[in-house]
Backbone:
């Protein structure tokens, strides 16, 4: 995971508290910030309903597992989250059905390291935007906010915790909780 590699390097910085997510410039199809819709997008979509989804990523050691998505709302079901960049992802629901997701960059979050427990944690908030897809979610649109939580556990060496840029984690858990409004773009979805 791209953002995890950056977080590993960031562990060298003795940050006592996390920093707020820095939002970066967006793509042409989104507003000026990833995860925030443009005025043009808002004008086209009037019948949005509640959307909620979670993403959980668990890696032991050097694993690089995809995130497991559980979505509830107009876009619903179980999917795999593939991060294409620090601000773009794809939720793959199978059967050639995907949703493009633009989101705030969380790769620069500074984790707080606890040498006593040999762990690191970080929290951040940001925005997400559904920007079309394939299959039944070809016309998906939605937007909202999310909370990001990172937990990293390192191995102790001779009862001491030594964390530097070369230290590999024993366990990494990422939890994302997101909420907002969306449409799958189908007629029955626009009540």
Residues:
């Amino acid at each position: 995971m791209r953002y995890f590699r950056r977080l590993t390097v960031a562990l060298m910085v003795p940050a006592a508290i996390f920093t707020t997510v820095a939002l970066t410039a967006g793509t042409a199809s989104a507003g000026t910030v990833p995860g925030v819709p443009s005025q043009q997008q808002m004008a086209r979509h009037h019948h949005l309903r509640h959307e909620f989804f979670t993403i959980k990523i668990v890696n032991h050691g050097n694993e690089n597992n995809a995130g497991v998505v559980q979505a509830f709302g107009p876009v619903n079901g179980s999917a795999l989250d593939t991060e294409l960049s620090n601000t773009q992802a794809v939720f793959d629901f199978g059967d050639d059905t995907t949703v493009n997701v633009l989101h705030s960059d969380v790769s620069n979050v500074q984790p707080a390291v606890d040498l006593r427990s040999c762990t690191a944690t970080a929290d951040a908030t940001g925005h997400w935007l559904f920007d079309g897809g394939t299959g039944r979610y070809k016309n998906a649109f939605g937007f909202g906010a999310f909370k990001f939580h990172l937990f990293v556990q390192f191995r102790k060496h001779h009862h001491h915790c030594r964390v530097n840029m070369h230290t590999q984690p024993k366990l990494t858990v990422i939890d994302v909780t997101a909420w907002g409004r969306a449409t799958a773009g189908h007629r029955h979805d626009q009540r």
About this structure: The two ends are 39 Å apart (CA to CA). Residues 2-19+34-189 form one domain. The CA atoms of residues 130 and 141 lie 5 Å apart. DSSP finds two helices and nine strands in the chain.
